[in-house]
Specification:
Blueprint lengths: L2 E3 L5 E3 L1 E4 L5 E2 L2 E2 L1 H13 L4 E3 L7 H11 L7 E6 L7 H15 L4 E6 L5 H9 L2 H11 L2 E8 L3 H9 L5 E5 L10 H10 L4 E4 L13 H9 L6 H10 L4 E6 L4 H13 L7 H16 L20 H13 L2 H12 L27 H12 L2 H12 L4
Helix pairs in contact: 1-10, 2-3, 6-7, 8-11, 12-13, 12-14
The structure holds iron/sulfur cluster (2 copies).
One iron/sulfur cluster binds next to helix 12.
């Protein structure tokens, strides 16, 4: 295993354990199986475990495993505040204490504002006194590092990174999102600010492995390197020294061992021109299988009506090339789990965006089709409820 530094000099394993996908049996996490996997990961050198309040049963599972195996001092726990459920400073503290209880610990190493989507959301939290609360928690040692996780475009990511003296952050990043989401721009910006960057969705929810188009699978099978699809994705990430750790939701020993072996071997800045060319070829094949050729560059934004054009097209492509459920969830995350919603249906057809699109995309027409696919009654109901209860 290799390690990269956190802000305070702590060594973080470059392969991190995403604890959202433990195997279940009869609707409950299979504790014995999770324990075998987690303990094997620790033996292989993994020391960063990422969970969240809303990952059903996950906090309690790792809490029990770490306590039973007396290994709390060998691991770093990353957990997340469900700030969208918090209405007061009392609520903040109550939720945090509940997390400590579930985790059977008295401190959290890396604590994140979960899905911090925009500045307005951060301002709302500041209004509840979150800055004083963080200071107290850090002074008492109950929180060691404070950060935020983010899904959204690079502009807003950079503004959020600048809005507070964070210790780290977590972004969605993979070779398909190099120029969408926070993207390379966000990664570089965070690195320049001295922020360690944890990576989620390294395989784009399977899009870069099992859900690859056949043409891309052929390229991988025929390549002389002999890397698997996952290996190309992980190596591309670890090639970048700005990446601190890559989360993987590992739920089999085979997957864990394969990922750990790559994490022991992959070096920063080791990619050759041929390796980069291979990644470009894979991207080309994947983009060909997509509904709209949006690169996520965001030149068309901001839209005067707040439509998240790049986010919508990313989710819409996912809708046709991956599973529909994940696409709709991703669309919800990027358009309504935020203070100012950015739904495709908010488009008034002014055409301003189309003048800036280097891909010549008929944005207005495509947004209409995307809205028809993605804005289901559940989505519309969720949007109303979020506004009604001021969830963001
Ligand atoms: S056409 Fe629609 S998406 Fe484009 S800028 Fe105008 S309102 Fe926004
Ligand atoms: S619609 Fe065009 S300008 Fe907008 S993000 Fe996509 S490619 Fe870029």
């Amino acid at each position: 295993m290799q390690y990269r530094k956190a802000k305070d000099g702590t060594d973080i394993s470059i392969l991190a354990y995403g604890c959202m996908r433990f195997s279940k049996s009869n609707g409950k996490i299979d504790l014995a199986k999770a324990e075998r996997e987690v303990m094997e990961a620790i033996d292989l050198g993994v020391n960063y475990f990422d969970t969240a309040y809303i990952y059903s049963g996950s906090e309690a599972t790792i809490g029990e495993i770490f306590e039973r195996n007396h290994c709390r001092d060998r691991v770093y726990i990353a957990d997340k505040l469900p700030h969208y459920m918090i209405r007061s400073r009392t609520g903040l503290e109550k939720t945090f204490q509940e997390q400590l209880r579930r985790l059977r610990t008295d401190y959290i190493d890396f604590y994140l504002m979960h899905i911090l989507t925009d500045i307005a959301t951060w301002e709302r939290l500041k209004g509840l006194g979150v800055e004083d609360w963080i200071r107290e928690k850090k002074d008492s040692g109950q929180i060691r590092n404070i950060g935020f996780s983010y899904h959204g475009n690079s502009n807003m990511f950079c503004r959020l990174a600048d809005a507070y003296d964070w210790d780290f952050c977590m972004i969605q990043y993979n070779y398909l999102d190099e120029f969408s989401q926070a993207g390379r721009t966000g990664l570089t910006h965070a690195h320049e600010r001295g922020l360690p960057v944890m990576i989620m969705e390294p395989l784009r929810g399977g899009r870069l492995v099992s859900l690859l188009p056949d043409s891309a699978k052929r390229l991988i099978a025929e390549h002389e390197r002999g890397y698997s699809a996952a290996e190309w994705s992980f190596r591309w990430l670890w090639n970048q020294p700005e990446v601190t750790a890559v989360l993987s939701g590992m739920n089999s020993l085979d997957m864990l061992r394969e990922n750990a072996a790559i994490a022991s071997d992959a070096r920063a800045e080791s990619f050759t021109q041929e390796d980069f060319a291979m990644i470009e070829s894979l991207k080309t094949q994947i983009n060909r299988s997509m509904k709209v050729g949006c690169t996520g560059c965001a030149y068309c934004m901001p839209c005067p009506k707040g439509v998240d054009i790049a986010g919508t097209f990313s989710a819409w492509n996912m809708f046709y090339s991956q599973d529909k459920k994940s696409a709709r969830r991703s669309y919800m995350q990027c358009t309504i789990f935020r203070h100012d919603p950015g739904s495709a249906s908010q488009c008034i057809g002014c055409g301003k965006c189309e003048k800036h699109c280097p891909q010549g995309i008929e944005i207005r027409k495509k947004l209409k089709s995307a809205a028809a696919d993605l804005e289901t009654p559940v989505y519309k109901g969720g949007k109303v409820l979020i506004r009604l209860f001021h969830l963001w």
